[in-house]
Known about the structure:
- The protein is an alpha/beta fold.
- The chain has two domains: 3-179, Alpha-Beta Barrel (TIM Barrel), CATH 3.20.20.10; 197-307, Lyase, Ornithine Decarboxylase, Chain A, domain 1, CATH 2.40.37.
- The chain contains ten helices and 14 strands.
- A six-stranded parallel beta sheet has the order 1-2-3-4-5-6, covered by helices on one side. The protein has a six-stranded antiparallel barrel with strand order 7-10-13-12-11-14. Strands 8-9 form a two-stranded antiparallel sheet.
- The longest helix is centred in the middle third of the chain and has 14 residues, at 134-147.
- It is elongated and about 80 Å long.
- The two termini are 23 Å apart.
- The structure holds pyridoxal-5'-phosphate.
Amino acid sequence: xxxxxxxxxxxxxxxxxxxxxxxxxxxxxxxxxxxxxxxxxxxxxxxxxxxxxxxxxxxxxxxxxxxxxxxxxxxxxxxxxxxxxxxxxxxxxxxxxxxxxxxxxxxxxxxxxxxxxxxxxxxxxxxxxxxxxxxxxxxxxxxxxxxxxxxxxxxxxxxxxxxxxxxxxxxxxxxxxxxxxxxxxxxxxxxxxxxxxxxxxxxxxxxxxxxxxxxxxxxxxxxxxxxxxxxxxxxxxxxxxxxxxxxxxxxxxxxxxxxxxxxxxxxxxxxxxxxxxxxxxxxxxxxxxxxxxxxxxxxxxxxxxxxxxxxxxxxxxxx
Length: 319
Ligand SMILES: *Cc1c(COP(=O)(O)O)cnc(C)c1O
């Protein structure tokens, strides 16, 4: 799964590292266009196509197309070119996918169309990140019943790959785990972070007890405190809702965010650790400071943080 610019990791940096994947999946045509510049590997278009022009472009880009709605079946039936498709079934999430009835109704026609090659039948879990949620077994059972005659099936996202062995089938669809983040709230998956976000210490200052930090004056020093001002903010994708106390790694020590996150800066209480101006603070992407922790402190999920790093941030491939 390399949609959303490889979960914010930049498609051009990630694509060369996963060239041995059977197929690379993107959400929309604009992403497929960009990905085709980078690889000759098969591409799967997850949201499918909505017009004859889009279908033509998807064919020209040599994409396999997810078909999830009867209107798309209508479009591909009118095509005179060979086409590889994945059929998506809605097994209960009620986002994309054919209902079981529509699936059973259309499947024989799609199979008898010699221009159409059905590569795989897929569905998506609503609650796989909650290992004990009853939806998981319900969706799986529905999918198994509906697709028992098919040779190529796909259901598992990262959470299911890690926790629902019965959902693996022939194709798995790892997303967040490829980038070393856990889909669960507990982080003990052994996955290693791929992205490290860092920013420089711009300056240091000491304030006295009773003095405030940042917009809204929402943090007040209880005692004399040494602060580091770090050059990163919500304009870079650091979450504005990160709470007081959110950890920041400086000089290998976990320090606490204090005051509100600004557009270009955050302020960190460095306690009595040694910090130099220009030194880089790590915001996430270290064994000691995972993006999941920052997500927890800012009421969001790692997916949103990783995909939200802005274009102002310079991306480089290490090593
Ligand atoms: C994004 C996506 C995935 C990957 O999900 P993760 O939770 O990131 O592993 C799998 N399947 C589909 C259809 C998706 O859109």
